[in-house]
């Protein structure tokens, strides 16, 4: 039997999408529906004809829109988004669903995304042996957490059928009434009945805003015996919702404050949200990473700076848990292809509610410092090879740890025992009093304050009481215009 492969393929694909229980839709970059299958009527009580070319995604998701917004932005930024969520159908029944947002690329640009919602856990189904139950929670949750989640699911299932009594809930979930009431309020911040009413009001608010029904009809659907009681509950819900929105407004102001500070900062710093998408950067960051002609705001750092994904993604995830990370040197490749050494400081920023809102990343190019260190190491190796011939010793003074190191040649010049621990205060006593100490003091001051190298000759008196003339050469190493280390050589020039 012969047939047209293309026409049959698309016909089969269309029939499958129209007869699947999963919800399928396509949203353009303006979040307007361009396609929806028949399952949308079962999920959200709205037909494809009512959605296509008419509905905004926020109209369909309702209160879930703000929750899903980071994933929506992620899809529009070109990243596949997969996440699990409990949603309420238009009938009031709760479903545990897996949502997939797959970006649609046309000529390299994201024009929209495909949405797929699948029921991954019929609430009353029995698991196959060896299969994970939907009711099972992540291993870091306790058995009591699981119990309370199951109670919440029971309440979700009964939003349109009436509140199950505390007694019925305790019997169904095998827990005493007193423990159930105490633990539920501690975990959810509400009594069981208050939590149930709040869920009902969420659905009522959505139906009323979408003009699917009026308040009286909603009161009947939710089994209120008196419409005035429903109106009182709904009014209380709206007040609470308004209060929550008022707390969210300062949060946005807080983010805007962060953005302003970062954009005007004279250092190389960037601000990211919890999805590691750019929120704001300093001018120095744009210059440092060659982003002048790049539209990077709201895009992932891994997309804009691909080399960071392999080396930094785990660090970012660690810091998104509230941790701070500092790195003294990481070799990365910039957008212009140049490899450089970067010093990193990564720290989380927090919302007014205390949650991690994202990360601030400060970097500093220390390639020149690394080059100086490498040259110093090379010079030290060469000097150590020649020390036995020329009596040249090497020394280092770390200004951060206040420690001093020198080699055996210097130890011998000062006639010190092998067990002597290098100590600048002790060495200062070896320098002959008078103009010699003035010369040393001036050289050190100019080096530490202005970063000037020095080359001086002074007289010293050794441990054995012998007068010697030595030459000291020092090179400062600067970081943020401050001297963090002095290194150099010292050799005996006493006339024979």
Automatic annotation (TrEMBL):
SUPFAM superfamilies: PYP-like sensor domain (PAS domain). SMART domains: HTH_ARAC. Gene3D superfamilies: Homeodomain-like, PAS domain. InterPro entries: HTH_AraC, PAS, PAS-like_dom_sf, PAS_4, PchR_regulatory_protein. PROSITE patterns: HTH_ARAC_FAMILY_2. GO terms for molecular function: DNA-binding transcription factor activity; sequence-specific DNA binding. Residues 149-238 form the HTH araC/xylS-type domain. This is PAS domain S-box-containing protein. It comes from Mucilaginibacter gossypiicola.
């Amino acid at each position: 039997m012969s047939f047209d492969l293309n026409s049959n393929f698309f016909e089969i694909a269309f029939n499958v999408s129209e007869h699947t229980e999963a919800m399928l839709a396509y949203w353009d970059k303006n979040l307007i529906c361009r396609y929806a299958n028949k399952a949308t009527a079962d999920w959200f009580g709205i037909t494809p004809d009512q959605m296509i070319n008419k509905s905004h995604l926020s109209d369909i998701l309702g209160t879930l829109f703000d929750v899903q917004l980071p994933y929506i932005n992620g899809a529009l930024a070109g990243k596949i988004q997969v996440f699990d969520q409990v949603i309420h159908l238009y009938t009031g029944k709760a479903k545990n669903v897996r949502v997939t947002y797959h970006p649609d690329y046309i000529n390299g640009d994201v024009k929209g995304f495909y949405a797929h919602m699948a029921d991954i856990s019929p609430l009353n189904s029995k698991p196959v042996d060896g299969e994970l139950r939907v009711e099972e929670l992540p291993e870091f949750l306790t058995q009591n957490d699981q119990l309370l989640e199951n109670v919440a699911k029971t309440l979700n299932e009964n939003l349109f059928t009436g509140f199950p009594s505390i007694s019925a809930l305790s019997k169904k979930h095998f827990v005493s009434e007193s423990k159930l009431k105490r633990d539920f309020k501690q975990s959810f911040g509400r009594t069981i009945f208050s939590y149930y009413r709040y869920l009902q009001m969420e659905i009522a608010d959505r139906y009323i805003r979408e003009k699917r029904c009026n308040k009286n009809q909603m009161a009947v659907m939710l089994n209120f015996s008196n419409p005035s009681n429903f109106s009182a509950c709904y009014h209380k819900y709206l007040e609470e919702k308004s209060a929550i929105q008022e707390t969210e407004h300062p949060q946005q102001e807080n983010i805007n404050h962060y953005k302003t500070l970062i954009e005007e900062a004279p250092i190389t710093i960037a601000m990211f949200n919890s999805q590691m998408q750019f929120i704001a950067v300093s001018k120095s960051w744009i210059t440092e990473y060659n982003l002048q002609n790049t539209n990077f705001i709201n895009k992932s750092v891994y997309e804009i700076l691909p080399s960071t994904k392999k080396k930094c993604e785990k660090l970012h995830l660690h810091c998104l848990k509230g941790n701070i990370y500092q790195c003294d040197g990481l070799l990365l490749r910039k957008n212009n292809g140049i490899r450089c050494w970067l010093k990193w400081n990564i720290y989380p920023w927090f919302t007014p509610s205390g949650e991690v809102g994202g990360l601030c990343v400060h970097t500093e190019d220390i390639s020149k410092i690394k080059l100086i260190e490498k040259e110093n190491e090379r010079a030290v190796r060469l000097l150590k090879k020649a020390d036995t011939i020329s009596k040249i010793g090497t020394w280092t003074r770390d200004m951060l740890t206040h420690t001093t190191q020198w080699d055996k040649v210097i130890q011998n010049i000062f006639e010190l025992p092998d067990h002597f621990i290098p100590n600048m205060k002790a060495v200062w006593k070896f320098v002959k009093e008078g103009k010699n100490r003035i010369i040393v003091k001036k050289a050190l001051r100019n080096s530490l304050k202005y970063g000037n190298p020095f080359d001086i000759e002074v007289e010293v008196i050794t441990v054995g009481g012998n007068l010697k003339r030595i030459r000291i050469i020092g090179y400062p190493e600067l970081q943020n215009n401050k001297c963090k280390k002095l290194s150099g050589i010292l050799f005996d020039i006493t006339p024979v």
